[in-house]
C-alpha cells in the first residue's frame, strides 16, 4: 500500500506538468522492466548482450530524439556548409520532457547493473515503476541507483521521528538556499550576462561569482529538498553535494559537485572504457577522461558551449593527472597552508571562469563575456553588491557545519534551535515571491 500510494503520487506529480509525457515515462518504464527480466533470465551471453543493446539503444534513442535532434541536424548542416554546400534543415522544436535525462540514466544503470550481476532483475512491476518515477528525485536527481533505492522500496518503511526531523531540516535549509540565495541573485546574473557589453570588467567578475553561488544554491537546494522529502517518507537518498568550493583541484571538485552524476559517468563511461583499453597505458586514461567530460557537457545541453565547458574540465583533469607526481613534490617544498589555500583559490577561479560558457547563450556570447573579464575596467568598484551578505551567510554557515550531517544539525538547547528555525523561515518568507524555475530543470 505504501508503494502503491507513492506510485500514484509520483505519476500525478509528473502528469501535472504535462500529462501527455506521462505516456513516455510509462512506456520507458514498462519496456526496461521487461528487458531487465529478459537479461536476468537469458541463458546465453549473446542473448543477454542483445537484450542489453536493445534496452540501451531504445533509451538513448528517446533521449537523443527529444533532446538533441535539432542540435545534430543543425550541426550536420553547418559542417556541410564548410564544403561550400548549403542544406535547408527543418527543426522540430520539440518540448523537452521534464526529467528525461535523469530517469533515462536511472533506467540505463538498472539494466547495466542487472547485466553485470550486481542486482537481480526486479520482478514486481509496481516496485520497479516506483524506482523509476519516485517523485522527490524524478525531475532533477539525485540520480539514484537500483542497488540503493530498490531495496528500500521493497522493504516496509516505518515512521521515525529522528529521520523525519532531519528531513524537515533539510527541506528548510534547501528552501533557504533556493529562495533566499539562488532566486535573489538570479536577476542580477541574468542582467549582467544579458548586457555584459554595458558593464565594466569588475561587474562581469561579480556576475560569474553570483552565478557560481546561484547555481550551487539552486541545485544543492533542490537536492536538499528532495533528500528531505525522501526522509519524510522513510527513504535515504544519495548525498549530491559536499562543499564543492573548498576543492583543491578539479578532480576533487567533481567528486563533490553533483556527486550522483559524476559517479554515474565514472562507473558507466570512464571505467568500462579504461578497462577495455588499459593496455594503451596513460593514453587510455586521458582519452577516457576527455570522452567522459565531452559526454557530460553534451548531457547538460544541446549546444556547443556546454560541450566546450565539459572539454575544458576534462582537459584540466588530464593535466592534473599527468602532473600528479610533480605537484606532490612541489607541495613538500612550500608550507602546507599556503599550498592548500592557493590550490583552493586557483581551483575556484578556474571553475567560475569556465562557467562563463556554461551560462552563456552560445559560444560567441561566452567568448565575448570571457574577453570582457580582462578589460582594464577590472579595477572599478562594482555595483550590485547587495546580495553578497546572503551568499556569505550560506557559505559560512555550511562551513561551520561541515562536520555535521547537514547545515541545520546542531545540539543546541531546544529554544535556541527553534529560534534559528524561525529566523531561517522568516528569511524564506521575506524573499518569497521572486521564484525562478530550478536551474537544472532545463537539462
Please tell me about this protein's structure.
By secondary structure, this protein is mainly α. The protein has two domains: 2-153, no CATH class; 161-431, no CATH class. The protein contains 17 helices and no strands. It has helices at 2-17, 22-41, 45-81, 100-116, 125-133, 146-153, 161-194, 201-232, 250-256, 259-276, 282-300, 304-322, 324-331, 336-359, 363-372, 388-400, 414-431. Helix 2 (22-41) packs parallel to helix 4 and helix 10 packs antiparallel against helix 11. The protein is globular. 38% of the residues are buried. The model has no long low-confidence stretch (mean pLDDT 90).
Strand-helix topology:
Elements: H1 2-17, H2 22-41, H3 45-81, H4 100-116, H5 125-133, H6 146-153, H7 161-194, H8 201-232, H9 250-256, H10 259-276, H11 282-300, H12 304-322, H13 324-331, H14 336-359, H15 363-372, H16 388-400, H17 414-431
Helix pairs in contact: 1-5, 2-3, 2-4, 2-5, 3-4, 5-6, 7-8, 7-17, 8-14, 10-11, 11-12, 12-14, 14-15
Amino acid at each position: 500500500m505504501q508503494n502503491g500510494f507513492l506510485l500514484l503520487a509520483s505519476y500525478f506529480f509528473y502528469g501535472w506538468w504535462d500529462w501527455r509525457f506521462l505516456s513516455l515515462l510509462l512506456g520507458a518504464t514498462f519496456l526496461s522492466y521487461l528487458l531487465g527480466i529478459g537479461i536476468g533470465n537469458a541463458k546465453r551471453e549473446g542473448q543477454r548482450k542483445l537484450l542489453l543493446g536493445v534496452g540501451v539503444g531504445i533509451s538513448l534513442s528517446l533521449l537523443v530524439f527529444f533532446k538533441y535532434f535539432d542540435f545534430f541536424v543543425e550541426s550536420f548542416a553547418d559542417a556541410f556548409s564548410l564544403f561550400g554546400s548549403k542544406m535547408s534543415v527543418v527543426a522540430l522544436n520539440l518540448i523537452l520532457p521534464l526529467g528525461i535525462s535523469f530517469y533515462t540514466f536511472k533506467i540505463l544503470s538498472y539494466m547495466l547493473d542487472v547485466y553485470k550481476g550486481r542486482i537481480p532483475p526486479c520482478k514486481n512491476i509496481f516496485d520497479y515503476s516506483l524506482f523509476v518515477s519516485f517523485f522527490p528525485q524524478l525531475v532533477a536527481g539525485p540520480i539514484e541507483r537500483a542497488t540503493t533505492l530498490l531495496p528500500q522500496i521493497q522493504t516496509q518503511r516505518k515512521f521515525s521521528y529522528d529521520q523525519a526531523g532531519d528531513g524537515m531540516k533539510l527541506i528548510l535549509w534547501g528552501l533557504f538556499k533556493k529562495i533566499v540565495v539562488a532566486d535573489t541573485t538570479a536577476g542580477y546574473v541574468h542582467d549582467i550576462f544579458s548586457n555584459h557589453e554595458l558593464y565594466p570588467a569588475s561587474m562581469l567578475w561579480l556576475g560569474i561569482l553570483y552565478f557560481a553561488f546561484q547555481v550551487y544554491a539552486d541545485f544543492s537546494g533542490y537536492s536538499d529538498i528532495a533528500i528531505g522529502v525522501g526522509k519524510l517518507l522513510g527513504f535515504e537518498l544519495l548525498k549530491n553535494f559536499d562543499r564543492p568550493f573548498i576543492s583543491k583541484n578539479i578532480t576533487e571538485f567533481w567528486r563533490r559537485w553533483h556527486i550522483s552524476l559524476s559517479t554515474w559517468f565514472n562507473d558507466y563511461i570512464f571505467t568500462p572504457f579504461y578497462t577495455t583499453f588499459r593496455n594503451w597505458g596513460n593514453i587510455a586514461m586521458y582519452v577516457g577522461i576527455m570522452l567522459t567530460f565531452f559526454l557530460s557537457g553534451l548531457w547538460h545541453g544541446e549546444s556547443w558551449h556546454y560541450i566546450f565547458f565539459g572539454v575544458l574540465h576534462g582537459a584540466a583533469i588530464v593535466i592534473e593527472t599527468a602532473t600528479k607526481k610533480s605537484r606532490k613534490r612541489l607541495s613538500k617544498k612550500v608550507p602546507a597552508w599556503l599550498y592548500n589555500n592557493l590550490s583552493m583559490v586557483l581551483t575556484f577561479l578556474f571553475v567560475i571562469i569556465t562557467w562563463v560558457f556554461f551560462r552563456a547563450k552560445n559560444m560567441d556570447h561566452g567568448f565575448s563575456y570571457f574577453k570582457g573579464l580582462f578589460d582594464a575596467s577590472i579595477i572599478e568598484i562594482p555595483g550590485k553588491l547587495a546580495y553578497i551578505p546572503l551568499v556569505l551567510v550560506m557559505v559560512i554557515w555550511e562551513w561551520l557545519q561541515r562536520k555535521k550531517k547537514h547545515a541545520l544539525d546542531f545540539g543546541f538547547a531546544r529554544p535556541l534551535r527553534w529560534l534559528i528555525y524561525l529566523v531561517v523561515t522568516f528569511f524564506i518568507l521575506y524573499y518569497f515571491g521572486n521564484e525562478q524555475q530550478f536551474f537544472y530543470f532545463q537539462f
